[in-house]
Each structure stands twice: as C-alpha cells, then as structure tokens.
Design goal:
39% of the residues lie in helices and 22% in strands. It contains nine helices and eleven strands.
Length: 304
C-alpha cells in the first residue's frame, strides 16, 4: 500500500498548466513507489485519459467522475484512493520539489493534525491589476512565515488550510464523505456560478476538528499557483467575492452556526450611500459583491 495518494481533480484543464502540475510531480524528491497518483477527470468535454499519459508513474490511475463540481470529484477520489494520507493538488498548481517529503514529515511529527497545507505563491500570465495587492486571497495567494495550527475550526480561520496542496488524513476524508452524503447541499460549497470557491475546503478542515483533530498551515510547504489572465479581471474578482460570501453563509448554516440576519431594503439603501461616500470604486464593488452573495444565501435559506 502506498504511503499517500496524490489527487488531481480536473475539468477541461488548460493543457499547459496541467502539464506543469504533472511535471512538478515528476520532479518530486520522494520516490514514486511510495505514493500513488490519481487524475480525476471531472466530466471534461475531451476525456483526459486519451490526452494525458501517466505511464511515467508506476502507481497512476485515470478516474472519470461525471457529476461536475469539485466536491463530487473529491468524493470520488476519496473512495478510489488507497492510502492513509491524501494530497489534493489543483491542475494549475506547481509543487515545490520537496512538497511531498515535507508534507509527510509534518504528518509524522504532528499526529494531532487532520488537515494541513502551506504557502501559495502566484505566477501571473500578465501584469496583475492593482487590486491584486489587497484582494489576492480571491486568487488563492497565501504567503506567510512559520507555522500555525488550531482545533477551533472556523473560529480560527487564519489557521485553516486551503485546498491547493491540502493534506488530509484518511479518517477525516471518510468522515467528510459520509457527512456530505447525508447533506448533499454541501456540494454547493465548492462551486458558485462556475467559479470554484474555498468553502468546501473549510468544510473539510472543520470536519477534522469535529472528530478531535486539528488543522494547520506550514511555510515549509510551498507551491506556485498559475494565474491566467482570465482571472485578472474585475468580473472575476467580483464573482469570486460573491461566491465566497454565499458559500460561507451556507457552510455556517449547514453546521448550525450563527449567521447574520437578513437586512431591510432601507438598511441596504443606507449602506450603499455610505459606501459611495467612503470607499474607492473597487472597494465599493467588492463589498457590494460580498453583500449580494450573503443575501442570496440568506434568501435561499429563508425559502427552505
């Protein structure tokens, strides 16, 4: 049995980005015999099995999942994997050569952690707009030093790992799979309007805390996130903001946590006026996108 399963869930990937993700896996310092590689084709228009040769890895498999969405793809991969540790790698991320060996050391030295990940450095296809400096988290940019972990889940969001390069112990993954099976609405946490959202990662991380384990982040784990020009637009920023706000409300509601009350039309109007007077154009649009996402979620919950 392999020490851990490396999983790439991909739907209609950008070929040059997926190639770089696979090249980075080929360059890992840890021997390939110690880990398996699963490439999950999440209902791509052109089947990945016919285009991507994984014969370079002795423990590789192609898997096809017809239900679109990052959550269904991950659930399928959990069922197909065989190792006690899982590593989720996005199809636009390039792992540092020591990523797998460093992650395994953390697994051995921090047995109380159920999930963990690290830094996400950006590589932009074009010169990024100015708003990236402030709203880079919407592009999965995360840079820090040291390490941090907690067993408080969403109450310590700064310590929660993100999905790009996330390590997950098998017992956490199986518990998460069972819970989503009982509440299929949690599949919506991973995608909103076609844009993947991080809240399915938070749901998975929170599951570790639910069963008495912790979640953490470590600067020794480093990867590069390849960011195409299509994500460096204002429309992407606003869609990502709205989707994240929607998913966070739905995540908290699914877990019985406190959520904000619905606001009246008058309060919303006064809020818009205040934002016009106090915020820059981009800041105003981002706040309004967040409010739209929250309001959509609250309206949906009220209609149930």
């Amino acid at each position: 049995m392999p020490d851990f399963s490396v999983i790439i869930c991909s739907r209609n990937p950008r070929p040059d980005y997926l190639q770089r993700a696979l090249d980075a896996l080929q360059a890992q310092t840890l021997p390939r015999e110690r880990w398996e590689l699963l490439l999950v084709d999440n209902a791509s228009k052109e089947p990945l099995v016919s285009a991507w040769n994984l014969s370079w890895h002795p423990r590789s498999r192609h898997i096809r999942e017809e239900e679109p969405g990052i959550v269904p793809a991950r659930l399928r991969s959990i069922g197909e994997s065989t190792a006690e540790l899982l590593v989720f790698v996005d199809d636009d991320t390039v792992l540092a050569p020591n990523y797998l060996s460093a992650g395994q050391k953390i697994a051995e030295s921090h047995s109380s952690l159920g999930v963990w990940s690290g830094q996400c450095h950006p590589e932009f296809e074009i010169t990024p707009p100015l708003w990236v400096a402030r709203f880079g988290s919407c592009l999965t940019i995360r840079r820090f030093s040291g390490e941090c972990w907690s067993n408080l889940g969403l109450m310590a969001e700064h310590a929660l790992p993100w999905g790009a390069g996330m390590w997950v112990r098998r017992k956490v993954a199986l518990e998460y799979k069972a819970r989503v099976g009982e509440d299929s609405s949690r599949k919506k946490l991973g995608e909103f309007g076609g844009v993947p959202r991080p809240c399915e990662d938070f749901d998975l991380a929170q599951t570790a805390c639910d069963i008495g384990l912790g979640a953490g982040i470590f600067s020794t784990l480093e990867l590069t996130h390849l960011i195409g020009k299509n994500r460096l637009t204002e429309s992407y920023l606003l869609g990502a903001t709205e989707g994240t706000a929607y998913s966070m409300i739905m995540l908290k509601a699914s877990r019985g946590m406190a959520i904000p009350p619905r606001t009246s039309r008058l309060r919303r109007a006064l809020g818009r006026l205040r934002r016009w007077l106090t915020l820059s154009p981009v800041e105003r649009l981002v706040v309004e996108a967040r409010i739209r996402g929250e309001q959509r979620a609250l309206d949906e919950l009220a209609d149930r």
